[in-house]
């Protein structure tokens, strides 16, 4: 277990993980945002939160542009909300670390794989929202809301797993895996049932194509590890990183080249616009994944285990659910 940080020399910052630290960590940003809204409602809420954060969620849930406060917003990602979401992810890392310390969690490859079904379930729920099958709950399964929902379920399952572990009943990975597998099977089962019985379009070939591409490329990395002697490419954690990112790349490739979809992510949109090449994201992903694995391998030796694991999980979380969502929504023709 990593050593908690102590107070700073001024005594203004409480020890990491203490009650006062959690109050400051969670309550501080909330108070800052609410104060800013009260002082500058038009600038902060209307021109920032509504225009770039909450408005696109409402527009996505409604399936059409929405106008409020004289500002029309559309669904999708922009440079502003992409940076904002990245900032939220980075801000969450100290909290996750403190959560880990408080519960004495072993951050292992087994735990990462047990979390994978929860991540898959999140991607499937996002596809259900795309298909307008969640009714008024749609807004909770659209970025950024979905990240809080999925993270909450993951952390709750870990907390329950900790209690069961302490009683000698079940390990944390087993508990998390059961929760995730149950949720994923229900969500994917709903998608499959809808596709077979009610969807106007059903393309069962889509998951075959995207999964095959992701598996073949991941296998290629594994084979490259054997040929080059780079043993990291045989490590299950790195293989999960590679598979998640390449599934996302595969669904982009299949969607754009075969079914006329346009990318939703801001960076992907810009990449297609700059290159005009339909396979540009896939090619760039291959290069980026290789670079990311190299950085992670280097960091595994230099960083504390907890930091390295959390960074690897963040990379998995921004790849794997995108592959699930893109694949399942294309399968349903939405």
Automatic annotation (TrEMBL):
The chain crosses the membrane at residues 20-40, 78-99, 111-129, 141-164, 170-193, 205-225, 271-296, 308-324. InterPro entries: DUF63 (IPR002749). Keywords: Membrane, Transmembrane, Transmembrane helix. It comes from Saliphagus infecundisoli. The keyword Acetylation does not apply. The keyword Membrane applies. This is DUF63 family protein. It comes from the Archaea.
